[in-house]
Each structure stands twice: as C-alpha cells, then as structure tokens.
Amino acid sequence: MVRRMSLVLLLVAMVVMFASSTAMADEKRTHEGTFVSMKNNTEFVMKDAQGKEHTHTLAADAKIIGADGKECKLADFKAGQKLRVTTSEGDNKTAIKVEALK
After folding, report:
1. What is the pTM of this model?
2. Which residues of 20-58 are buried (b: 16+ CB within 10 A; e: fewer)?
C-alpha cells in the first residue's frame, strides 16, 4: 500500500513539473506591445514597451483574437492596439497567436 502511494505521489510530482515547465516555455515565447501597422495579410509590425519595433510573420494556422475574445483578422487591428504575441518555438519572428488586449 505504501509503495503504491509513493508511486502515485511520484507520478503526480512529475505531471506538475511537466505542466509548469511547459507554461514557463510559453511565457518566454510571449511578449506584449502595441500594434503599429500591417505590411500585408501575413506580416505586421508591433512596438514593444521599450519602443523597439518588431516585424512578425503569421504562421499559416495562426490564431488572431480580438479584444472581445473572438477570432478576427489582422486587418481589424488599429494602430495603438495593445497586443500579446506568442511566437513559435525556436522562431521569435513567426507568430502563432496574436491577442488583442483591453
């Protein structure tokens, strides 16, 4: 019985560690700023908190979420809109998710 309980606790600890490391990896790939302009249907420019501009290319399956929480198009964003951008792992230029912030 004690052995089973130890095994269960070990498995729970492993799941918690895996979940927290995945969440931390997502945080490193996510940054916030303001929308500057759209270059075309797949590229946009944003400005970070330090005022530096970044150009991102949308992934083919990128999710774009408006301030209302619903999917929208990149063209729906106006200059100055606060954004949270998540980039693909290993490529900080390709956006896999763009969320408008309120």
Report:
1. 0.71
2. eeeeeeeeebebebbbbebeeeeebbbbeeeeeebebbb
HSE-up of residue 14 (Cα within 13 Å, Cβ side) = 6
Q: What is the DSSP letter of 71?
A: B
How far the first Cα of the chain sits from its last, in Å, is 52
pLDDT in tens, 38-85: 988 899 999 999 999 999 999 999 999 999 999 999 999 999 999 999
| Residue of 40, 17, 68, 53 whose CA lies nearest to 85 | 53
Q: Cα separations (Å) of 58 from 17, 25, 50, 75?
A: 31, 20, 23, 13
> From the CB of residue 61, how many other CB atoms can be counted at a distance below 10 Å?
7
Residue found under tokens 């990896």: 25
Length of the chain: 102
Decide if domain 31-100 falls under CATH 2.40.50.140.
Answer: yes
